[in-house]
Amino acid sequence: MHALPTRSRSPSAPASQSSSRIACSTRRPRRRGRCNGMKPALDNLEWALQRRLDDVFAKLGEKYGDLTGRVEMAIRPAVTFDEIGGLPQAKETLRGFASALSTPERYREWGIEPPKGLLLYGPPGTGKAMLARALAGAAEAIFYHLKLMNLTSKFAANTAELLQEVLRIAVGEGRGVLLLDEIDALSLDHLLPPPQAREASARLIAALCEKLDAMDPSRLLVVGATIRTDALDPALVAPGRLDHLVEVTLPDAAAQREILELMRSRTEKNAGRALYETLDFRTILPMMGGMSGADIKEILRRALEAKVRQTVRQGTAPLVTSADLLEAIEGYKRVRGVVEKIRYGQYL
């Protein structure tokens, strides 16, 4: 029988096939209906774990301040690697890490310990957080998502103590994947002048590394994610820490088509009907050079949003065509150009 991650000091058994997401607030999660074939005992165990984690992080929020939007959790996320377009090498590597977390004894049979952590790096919008979620799902683990830019901006000097508390909780709850998103924010250069930032960051990173060094690698895998490898302290990627580097690249044309197909299927499933005519990828893909998965998602959203507005005006709207997508691409490029100019101060 499958069991949920527990606080036992032995390696955790696989989690149940259901999943749930827990927000860091004092609000109680609602009991979900039981799936056909799921034993009530498993449902009760998951509910107990869900409530316990909610209570633990609510108390943490009372101590440090509101964690909403800064720390998120999910018990065995429903995301799978098959739902992520492109990135074959990164997905294959992360499947290996999922195996290391779920069956650490394979490493010990060869006289070594399983890895403690890895670093996902690459351009924005390429799916680093989604990969980490899929890793947790494949390992049947609890997923902890720490948004470090938001955390450091709010808690500043207290971030080190908060990170140590979260690591302690995660290790104590059983098999888990902890994502340190925007880990470059630990440089604190977005908060302080350079001299003060270097001093405060050194203390913060030293505290984190101390916790990583003492961590049991069979219980928790720590994943860093960044778009700025130049801002990382080398101590974080030293041997025995986040020492496995996985590049997450922009999709090529084949990967962009795969992403488009996946997102098209997802939106049609959500709507319960066909939404698109047959698309001409020979004209669409050349217009999307250099675009990330997040860019493609936004383009589809804009094309569908245009259909919503048309339905409001006229009562109905035809299916999305290749021409509609091309129009959405052009509009998105214009907006992205303005955003880039604002980012670099050209409109200020």
Layout of helices and strands:
Blueprint: E1 20-23, H1 40-64, E2 71-75, H2 88-102, H3 105-108, E3 117-121, H4 128-138, E4 142-147, H5 148-155, H6 159-172, E5 176-181, H7 194-214, E6 220-226, E7 244-247, H8 253-271, H9 281-284, H10 293-314, H11 322-343
Parallel strand pairs: 3-6, 3-7, 4-5, 5-6
Antiparallel strand pairs: 1-2, 2-4
User: Total number of helical segments?
Assistant: 11
Strand order, biggest sheet? 1-2-4-5-6-3-7
Structural class: alpha/beta
Order of helices and strands: EHEHHEHEHHEHEEHHHH
pLDDT averaged over residues: 86
| N-end to C-end Cα span | 61 Å
Which architecture of the largest domain does the CATH hierarchy give at level 2? 3-Layer(aba) Sandwich
Q: What is the 3D form?
A: globular
Enter the CATH topology name of the largest domain.
Rossmann fold
- The first-level CATH class name of the largest domain: Alpha Beta
The largest pleated sheet is described as: 7 strands, mixed
**How large is the radius of gyration?**
22 Å
Strand content: 5-15%
Helix content: 40-55%
